[in-house]
Amino acid sequence: MMAKNKELRPPTYSISVVGLSGTEKDKGTSGVGKSCLCNRYVHPKADDYYPEHTSVLSTIDFGGRVVNNDHFLFWGDVNPTSEEGTEYKVQVIEQTEFIDDQTFLPHRSTNLQLYIKRAAVSRLQSAEKLMYICTDQLGLEQDFEQKQMPDGKLTIDGFLLCIDVSKGCNRKFDDQLKFVNNLVAQLAKTKKPVVIAATKCDECVDHYLREVQAFATNKKSMPVIETSARFHVNVDLCFATLIQLLDKTRGKPKIIPYLDAYKQQRQLVASATDKFEKLIVHAVKDYHADWKMISNKLKNHPDYEEYVTLEGTKKAKNTFSKHKEQLKQEHVRKRWEEYIALLPKALNILLPELEEIEKLNWLEAQSILEQSPDFPLWFVVLEKTPWDETDHIDNMNDKRLPFDLLSTSEGEKVYHNHVQHLISERRRFEMKERFKKHLEKVQFITPGKPWEDVLCFVMDNEACKFIIDADRREVYSGHQREIVEKAKEEFQEMLFEHSELFYDLDLNATPKMNEINTVLSEEPRYRALQKLAPDRESLLLKHIGFVYHPTKETCLSSHNCMDVKVEQLLSTSLIQFDNNRPQMYQDSANIDKLILVLLGRDGLAQELANEIRVQCTDDEYTLDGKIYELDLQPVDLNTFVSSGLTTVHQPHGYFCVYNTTESLGSMADCIERIRSETTPNRKGKFTANLSFTVILANQRDIGSKNLPILRLQGQQLANKLQCPFVDVPSGTYTRKFHEFQIKQALRGLLEALKNNLNIVSPLPSIKDLSEADLRIVMCAMCGDPFNVDLILSPFLESQFCSAAQPGHNNSLLLEKIIGEKRKRIQITILSYHSSICVRKDELVHGYILVYSAKRKASMAMLRAFLAEVQDVIPVQLVAVTDSQADFFENEAIKELMTEGEHIATEIAAKFTAIYSLSQYHRQTEVFTPFFSEVLEKKNCIENSYVFDSTRESTNASEDFSMSPRASSPACNYYPDSEDDNEAPPPYSPIGDEVQLLPSSNDRSKHRSDFEGSEYPVHSSPIVNHDNHKVPPPIKPKPVVTRHDVRKLDPNLVKTIEQVIGKNPKRNNRAPFGHPDDLDPTDNYSVPRDSLLKPRVDDEIYAIPQDSKTSKIIKKSTLTGGNNSQGEEENGLIDRLSKQPIIRKPSKYKYKSKTLFRKARLYYRRRERFDYDDETVPSSRKPKKGKTHRGSEEDPLLSPDSCGKAGIDNPAIASDPEVDDVRRPKKDKKSAKPKPQKPNKKGQRPALPARRNWESNYFGVPLEEVVTPDNPVPAFIERCVEYIESTGLNNEGLYRVSGNRTDQDNIQRQFDQDHNIDLVAMDVTVNAVAGALKAFFSDLPEPLIPYNLHSELLEATRLIDMSEKLNAFKELLKKFPVENYEVFKYIITHLNRVSQQSKLNRMVADNLAICFWPTFLRPDALTNAAVNQSTIETFIQQYQFLFYNGDIVETFTPPGAPCTGQLVEPLLPLPSLPPPPQPQPSSQQFPSEMQTDQLDVI
After folding, report:
1. Is the dihedral of CA 511, 517, 519, 520 positive or negative?
2. Spatial separation of the C-alpha atoms in residues 252 and 471, rounded to whole Å
3. Biggest alpha carbon distance in the chain?
4. Averaged pLDDT of the chain
5. Distance from C-alpha of 627 to C-alpha of 587, rounded to nearest angstrom
6. If we measure between CA atoms, which residue out of 1009, 1006, 1022 comes closest to residue 970?
7. What is the rounded average pLDDT of the residues 811-830?
8. Strand partners, 163
9. Is the CB of residue 1116 less than 8 Å from the CB of residue 1467?
10. Contact 276/309 with Cβ under 8 angstroms?
11. 1147 contacts 867 by C-beta, under 8 angstroms
């Protein structure tokens, strides 16, 4: 067993390395390389190789355990592997001779033989001898690895003879050969193999090597191995060769010449070096890296280990250091490039003016740079230089330039280049300016003309030749932008100047584009955009859309919108209610101390103070049974002029006394100064209103002739200040002041304090805002050339002006004494476009119409607005200009001011002018006469308003041209797309903040649906102003707004109740009574047919006629045929219509020839256009195969009103020019039109033609725009993605239509490029939604095929929900593949929309109303309720129908009708005889409809 284990051990060979040794005399200054050869073989790593091994030792080192008093060294053992893969062990012994460092003779040891005989010894013995590593080990054995020679003895198996073939120092090669010869003779006696190692071949002498080879040949062919321990060449080969001689079974290694072996070794080192350098480059990115950190990081990497083994750690560190230096130089270079690139920009900023530096050298320019205030932003002055050796290069956040960089030649070069650049740029700029001026002189250039058409006319210009083509195009493009922008502004101004063409609200037909273009084509400003016809048409459509749906967000004047400016001004100028009011303003009943300032001249104030103190007891005054402590502070006006008013506390009031004209004038100046000093700003901390009292003092020397003059002057000052005036009492008395005057003044002061409390109180204590005595609307045009504060200064500078209640951002409250009473006036300042809704729907007591005398468009807008104002409402016209001199110096201003005054004279209105350079016209007294007139006519205005509102509520189903407010553009019909069957929701273009009347009660916030249940009405357009249009209705019907009459004058309510009681009944269809002075054939006369024709009330969504029962689902009808139930039960309407004392209001255009002439001018033009196109406008028929859904050119046109041209006033209708055109058409009109035949069953309705361009994508079959890979059309995907990413929270999504022009642009752009970016197009969500709906409308067949409609109807009639849904599911399988995929995609999208219904107000029911006509394309006999319910079910149950999900439980509100069932219409409202007791009826009405019987008025 032991023998077997021994055989498994690797063989061990002991090799003795011998060679020339001895003293320096024998071997020279250096040895033959025995130690280096052993070192490289035993320790092959470069870090373990020591090139210096000394044989001169001290006695102590010689006796140490490493040398151990022996002349040989034990180098340890090596475990190499042969080429066959077997391992063996080699023990290396070096035979040497150690020299004493004292005697320089060999040390004495136990073996006294000579070196030649010791070297040939085959058995060595030395107890506890340690392995030798290096010379440094001697004496420090404990710091190195300690390994003993095995068993203390060794048997030598072979010898390695070292012969130095280099040029030795102080040694002859022949002597060495002689020594080697003797040594070989001794070695031969041992009969051990010997291999000759030619050492130091890297310094080889060729003939030495040849002599060694010859010597080896003579000695029985000893192998000679050429080695180099320094470069590790053939070291392992010489030992391997000796081992092969010891063990013949091993393969004989190939002996490689030194040069070949050296090349192989160098290649290996080069490869390792390349790998290591790449490793360093990859691992080290920052030149601040540390070698210790990097070496630890790479120590296990094979490339690192290989390089360190071959070259050592020192060389590896050197390689790392070189790479760091390269990184640093690269970093410095990049910073240098950054600085040089940034320097021109810095010079452009700091030295931009050529005149400043053109004649300066670089050093002088540097001094100017240092003086620049922005110098620290661009440069940094470093304490140490140069900059690349400082830490500044490492501060990457500091991009500033080192100032010492400027001292380099590159910095100076950049400076000179900068100067040359400025010179060339100056020349280039001059030439561009000259070229631009040349373009301005060329009349041939018009807006929109391309550069190529102009090039040949301008190439001869010197400036054009100088600049490059890019600059020419840039200048021309800029010139084109200017003239195009100017032309567009002038075109827009022209549209405003033709406001009667758009704002003529009596024209029931929306204007046609060709008619408008013909009227406007006479204008040069219209023809200026001839080459930009699409832009011109877009501007025109945008203007029309804004006229009919105006909002401040879409105002054409943008940031100059009057509504925006007013809100900004009022927010910064008016008193804002807060709790920071002065403590002095408390309940007047609790005031016990009054601080009074007495103002007078020449001692008059002191005399008044003395008189008051005489009537006091210890400064306490008794008034009306209450005691007040008075703090009197008399101020002489002469002293006040020099020193001003100094009071410790805020006074409660000022008593201003006078007795001469001079003292009154001084007092007026003093009061003005006090007001300016105490009320500098009306915003922020509350500034109290100042209470003044003007007192006329008695003077014995005042004659009766002067007293009336003084009294009149004092009263005028008091009226201006809106304060009391205390006159001299009648009678004769000797004192200057009477006790009656003092008491009257104190009472007035206490009353004023009470009024001040009402103003500053956060909760109104006297009146609520809705109870204002007068409601005045001031209108001004957006973009007028005057500041808003100019027209508001008469109100804002009043001390009794305050803000309206929160939410009314464009209103103010003004308390003013009119007559003998203080009245509260609510003034709402609006733009003309926002005032249209107010004019139609709100109670307004008077209008202040402002226009700029410098702008024709302003006057045109005033005319268009005033023409439709009821003539019972007082009007104040205000012209605004700079000064009175403008009237005489400027003919245009004179003409407009004259026209305004002429119109005011014609309609008996007030007219005034406000001058920006005059302060007088900014006083409140400018409008005092107007306010007085409004107050006088208040009852008449309110009676007319109630009468008109009542007539609208009772005749809502009649032709809406009866009402003077019904013919508003907001009520007209504008088809947006062919599939839209929705009616517009309640709409207010100015929002809630300008509502003049209070909101209705809770019942008015709901509408009754077809079954009588109530649902809330959401006015989404008030919040969302992105759209320009609202969804169109099926038929144009007015939206009736019922106002709460209880908010009006209580006396008026009593009058109405008395009228109701006296007139309980009226005859059916009896005409209204006409006053003697009113023509019964005016524009409010209604044809008899219109009165007899029953109509359906306006709805948000109108539902077509049911196909099963031929009944119409409708609301309760208030009017009908003879003896209709509505007329018998609605007694209030009967009674009101019989009032002969109420005059039906007309409009101002019928009282003014100027307004009438303007309206008739446009009317004539339109009539000519209509009759030129067709003989009978009312008998126009759509083209065959198409349903006329509006004009192709104008998406706003209404089909029902194409023949209703002109104004409905008989005076205009009887115009001779028009009659001449109409006469030949009367006979043709007598023929009865043929009734339209209903569609036959199965006949497909004609597809509307909505596009006016050719498209290969829209309007084609669905299978042509889808692929198997993309089953949903790309257009649908892009629209849905845009809507879901930006507009799911948009209120009224899919119900509120977007701009038709934007919709067409979206489809046109998609036709050109399917990869359009809707975000970049900057279109509204509603426009994208409309374009999406239009895609489905344009399909040749509906998304739900016609052949499946009957099956769909049968499935809908199933009562059980699960059966119905399963039937729907089976029906979906019959869809064409492309229809199914698209239908699945869009229904899933609509469900996501409905999930955001809390924000967008679009539940599944509303979405179904919007989409069922699009998906199904119904005919006139289709049951709308059934189809709507079907689509709603698809939206709600999309998970079950398309994704095999569960059925969703839906909630059906109580009282909701079943699908497919009709509900009887509601009965008319019960009659309202006082007292309001409900009549017994077979049907129950909602409680809300029975509580307040007065709401129907």
Report:
1. positive
2. 86
3. 172
4. 75
5. 15
6. 1022
7. 86
8. 198
9. yes
10. no
11. yes
pLDDT of residue 1235: 41
Say whether 743 sits in a helix, a strand or coil. helix
- In angstroms, rounded to a whole number, what is the distance separating the alpha carbons of residues 1242 and 1449? 35
What would the two tokens of residue 307 be?
Answer: 């390089």
Looking up tokens 């869809």 gives 1375
- Token readout for 1096 is 């359906």
Verify cis geometry, omega within 30 degrees of 0, for the bond prior to 1475: yes
Query: Minimal CA–CA distance to 555: which of 1020, 991, 992?
Result: 991
pLDDT for the residue numbered 778: 93
One-letter amino acid for residue 116 of the chain? I
Q: How far apart are CA 998 and CA 1020, in angstroms?
A: 19
Find the helix packing angle between 1349-1356 and 1424-1436, rounded to 10°: 80
Here the tokens at position 369 are: 């740079």
Q: Which residues contact 1081 (CB under 8 A, 6 or more apart)?
A: 1210
Q: Pseudo-torsion of CA 348, 349, 355, 356, nearest 10°?
A: -120
- Burial letters 1427-1442, b for 16+ CB under 10 A, else e: bbbbbbbbbbbbebbb
| pLDDT of 665 strictly over 90 | no
- Confidence category of residue 921, pLDDT binned at 50, 70, 90: low
Give the span between the Cα atoms of 1387 and 1383, in whole angstroms: 6
More confident residue, 367 or 1165: 367
User: Residue 414: pLDDT above 50?
Assistant: yes
Q: Do the Cβ atoms of 307 and 316 come closer than 8 Å?
A: yes
Q: What is the pLDDT of residues 8-25, one digit of tens each?
A: 688 999 999 999 998 888
**Higher-scoring residue by pLDDT: 66, 1130:** 66
Q: What is the pLDDT of residue 667?
A: 86
Give the chain's radius of gyration (CA, Å): 55
pLDDT by residue (tens digit) across 119-144?
Answer: 999 899 888 899 999 988 888 888 89
**Ranges 818-822, 1036-1040, 1355-1359, 1463-1467, most confident:** 1355-1359
CB burial of 374-408 (b: ≥16 within 10 Å; e: otherwise) equals ebeebbbeeeeeebbeeebbeeeeeebbbbbbbee
CA distance 778 to 562: 11
Residue 1173 has pLDDT above 60, yes or no: no
- The span from the CA of 222 to the CA of 195, in Å, is 6
Cβ 1143 vs Cβ 964: under 8 Å: no
Is the peptide bond between 1224 and the residue preceding it cis, with omega within 30 degrees of 0? no
DSSP state of 201: G
> Kind and range of the H or E element at 1189?
none
| DSSP per residue, 272-300 | HHHHHHHHHHHH---TT--HHHHHHHHTT
- Judge contact between 1202 and 556, C-beta under 8 A: no
CA distance 1033 to 974: 8
Torsional class of 316: left (φ above 0), alpha (ψ -120 to 50), beta (otherwise): alpha
Q: Once rounded to an integer, what is the mean pLDDT over residues 182-192?
A: 90
Write out pLDDT tens, residues 766-805. Answer: 334 457 889 999 999 999 998 888 888 888 877 788 888 7
Q: 65, exposed or middle or buried, with CB in 10 Å at 0-12, 13-18, 19+?
A: middle
In tens, the pLDDT along 100-118 reads 888 888 888 877 788 888 8
Distances in Å between the Cα of 22 and the Cα atoms of 99, 116, 199, 427, 1014 are: 8, 10, 18, 93, 126
CB burial of residue 424 (10 Å; 0-12, 13-18, 19+):
exposed
Nearest to 1157 by CA among 927, 903, 1371: 903
Secondary structure (H, E, C), 496-520: HHCHHHHHCCCCCCCCCHHHHHHHH
